[in-house]
Amino acid sequence: MSAPVRAAVLGTGLSATVFHIPFILAHPQYFALHSILERSATPDHSVARQRYGPNVKVVTTYDEVLTDKDVDVVVLSTPNSTHYPYAKAALEAGKHVIIEKPLTTTSAEGAELVALAARKKLLICVYQNRRWDSDFLTLRKLLAQDVFGEVVEFETRYDRFRPNLVGGTWKEKAGTGQGALFDLGSHLIDQVLTLFGTPSSVTGFAANSRQVGDPAFDDSFVALFHYPVSATRKLPLTVTLRGAILSLLNPQLRFTVKGTRASWVKYGLDVQEPQLRLAQPMSLTDPRFGVEPTELEGTLTTLDAAGQPASKKVPTERGDYTQWYKNVGQALQAGDVTLLEVKPEQGLEVIKMIEAIYTSSREGRTVSVA
Amino acid sequence: MAPIRAAVLGVGFSADVFHIPFIVAQPELYKLHSIMERRATATASKARDKYGHLGVKVVTTLEEVISDPEVDLVVVTVKDAAHFPYAKAALSAGKHVVLEKPVTATSAEVRELIAIAKAKKVVFAPYHNRRFDGDFLTLRSLIDAGKLPDLVDFESRYDTRADWGLGAPGGSAGILYGLGSHIIDQAVALFGEPKTVTAFLLNGRREGHPDVDDSFILHLRYANNPVVVTLRSALHSVASHQIRFIVRSKNSSFVKYGLDTQEPQAMFQGMGPLDPGFGAEPESSWGEYGVHDADGKDVFEKVKTIPGTYLGYYKNVAGAINGTGTLEVTPEHAELGMRIIEAAKVSDKEQKTVEFASLKF
Asked: What Cα–Cα distance (Å) separates residue A339 from each residue in A143, A333, B164?
């Protein structure tokens, strides 16, 4: 039995507290929560110590993490602009990296990190958790069952209603790696690349549709990924990725998938994040964790024997972010990057697509990415 | 005023479903005077079989129609390639014209028809009947009531699943003309001239001629309006209820599924425009309106669909002909819509967003 991988978590913010630490603690066969970097901790007051007890080491500088030989993996759930420098430092110090999406804010930096990790035989584990969203798992099951025939139209949306800036968050300032495309688009893009691979070309529109805050900050986007006929694709496929910020639909439209034989429409967003963000966060072993209300089941429409459309509800698979952590735990214990489901190169590919979308948006033209 | 004497060119599906019933249902406004049926003979005529009891004159040539002093209005509902030449001939002969969509293949042709109609002082009415679809009327009433202020997103879809053969390329072949003309016209009515056009034309089913589009995506952006308009049509859509509108304003939204009921009611239920319930929709098809109210609460409600009324289209045209009103669907709308189609073709070909005002058609 391999020893648990010892994790140092940077920060005590929302992401670390909700998405990472509980999952590390829930998998003692794979992980041990070794230390937490809490810059403002003092010997008398530490949020981390309060929450996680005396057995977790609390440090106040990143250097202490990097030089600690008992740290195997660094967990980076810090602002986007810190991803590259922090990840680079971790890899150079011989630590594996668990890193929130986006891997970095430029593809050049991303490529550098991927190459560095490969050279040092270290793992970069990009937290593309939404591959384990309930709706996406349901969709993958339908695709595996070949219900659609050829998929010819695919729309994926991450829409919200936020008329005002939230305030007090790094997420709303303009800058490289900021904006809705990096924040939410990265999830949609990763899912699309997982299903269909890299498109041939991309058309993008990034906009500040609320016209509040920094005008250079995109709060919404539309992107079209074009997949023309090829050796592996009989009919052209157009994928539309959308993130609207002033969408007052409840529930929000999430997926529209159209194939030659069937279509599937799904509303609502995976429940795990809201469940984890409850005042009393739901336990990962709670039987309700990841389970969506049946009212949100998607509708599958197929053609009956007479060629008429016939619709039925499809039960939603259970969402399960623990699968990401289990997969990463196994890969880290084995020290084998090929075991990772979310590959470092895929994290890099997402950034390349985001850059293509921005280029397309800026230059008003469809951009080739193949 | 004496009823307007209408001659309908053609006696196919379109004449039967979209024109003749609305003319015949309003005898105070119209008289169905004649029908041009090319293949009619003295002994065999579909027009006579269906409409002879109304005292309709059946002729076989355009010339007979436009030279008949008893004909006031010519309804041009023949195949697409004949739209422009027939409308030109009828307008030149001093007849009012209702012209089926797509009205022509080029905006230059629309401008020519407009000039002739002006010179002859006759009405040129493009048949963009879907301005009178129930869903569009309902959407407009919400906009007019101020319930969708400061639009940010306007998605309009006209999808179906059909094995239609779309013919040879050229002229007004393809879905951008065939179905796009409707939803482009609705966008023209709401938003006017765009600033930029981004378009994708696809032969997605890989059937028929590769240059004839069976699906399109059109993004329109405007100079003095932050709204982004997305228009899409496809023939590959397997659905019981096709999404029709997703419209978002800064604090509200409207989502509508389904297409106007008048066509299926006429085709499959044998209903006529005066039958109760014509153009009406069951509650299951009503759209949903949501608003973020002043207290920060989100309130959602179903919106009863205003019944669609192609009867209203023909009533409006009669008003214009009689001088008691003006056209709802103007030929200038059709001309702008045609330029948008032409701009879409340029954008698709060049794979870029085009500045509408910089294009010359």
From this structure: 23, 10, 48
